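Contributing new records

If you add data, match the layout below exactly. Sequence lines come first and carry their own label; structure lines follow with theirs. Keep one chain per record. Anything else will be rejected by the validation script.
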Amino acid sequence: MLDIHFIKENPDAVKAGMRAKGETDTTLVDQVLQVDETWRRLKSEGDQLRADANAQAKDVGRLMGQGKKDEAQALIASTGVMKERLKELEAAAAEAEARRTDLLLRIPNVPHPSAPVGATPDENVTVRTWGEPLPQEWRRPHWDIVAEYGWIDFERGVKVTGAGFPFYVGFGAKLQRRLIQFFLDRAGENGYVELQAPYFVNEDSARGTGQIPDKEDQMYEAPRDGFYAIPTAEVPVTNFHRDEILDGKALPIRYAAHTPCWRREAGSYGKDVRGLNRLHQFDKVELVKLVHPDTSYDELESLRRDAEGLLEALGLPYRTLLMCTGDMGFTQTKKYDLEVWAPGQQRWLEVSSCSNFETFQSRRMGIRFRGEDGKPRLVHTLNGSGLALPRVMAALLETYQQPDGRVVLPDFLG
């Protein structure tokens, strides 16, 4: 979330950022400033009343020592009234503080000045391309390929669970495993420490990375235990250092984790969801960085290159988009999307998002570092997909299929 002091000093910039992200109602800014003013007034009045009550308590002892019992009793009665009033003020202040926190959690991050202002995906900017998109010719969409060879069983997934929960069979399962291993090995070569993370998180963790309040409808819940199934490894991995003060000399900290991911994808329908294009359960290798604020945008560029390098190693043509403000999301300041070319479908498929959140997540989670001056500061957090598997597999099968129908993948994938 944003710093309340930043909002107080830059209310117009925060409102402009909200509008740039498609939020038409900017009254949240006015509300949070009003509630903050109320909280500060109540807290100040309470602090003064507490000080007065403490001073009177000392006077009671002095008067009793002087034998002035009547005056002491009067002060005791007055102090009792003050303490009752203090309870009321403390309760009102706590309510105002909770209300302020709730409002702060609902204000989106402010886009970085380098993010293009726009409202639709058409206003995203292509900043890099690699490889030549192949023509369709004999190439079929991946759902026809996997159906012919029996590598993915969508129908039995529907029977066992529901739509969007496929079985990977034989070579399909092996290819998944080999891709995961390849992505993790490359992450290790690039300096990321591998983690095996929990697949479920509690509410504090979901709130820490900005999944709530914002994306509740996209997550699967286990209400009995108060857990959420993770929509991405970003959530548990970024929370790994929650409420910690890190050694500034250890920055940047880089983690990589493979996990299954679960997303309800509420409202998704049509041709974009066919086959592997959009699933409710899928595997992904996630890259997470905790970095010094002075280097976070350089770290974003290196994160993007790490993800791009995977696609180049796979020989898959791709393009990198700098996302416009309206297509960026609630939590990010700047975001790149990597899209791979799927020749059997003749369309681009998103396989990675690389984002900088600055202190938006670390403030929620209390992740700080201690620099040379000894003072704790909030880290900047970043993450990126390195990579999401379903659409990578779709692009691989469609790219490497031969005129005779066989699929011949690069040797390192078997």
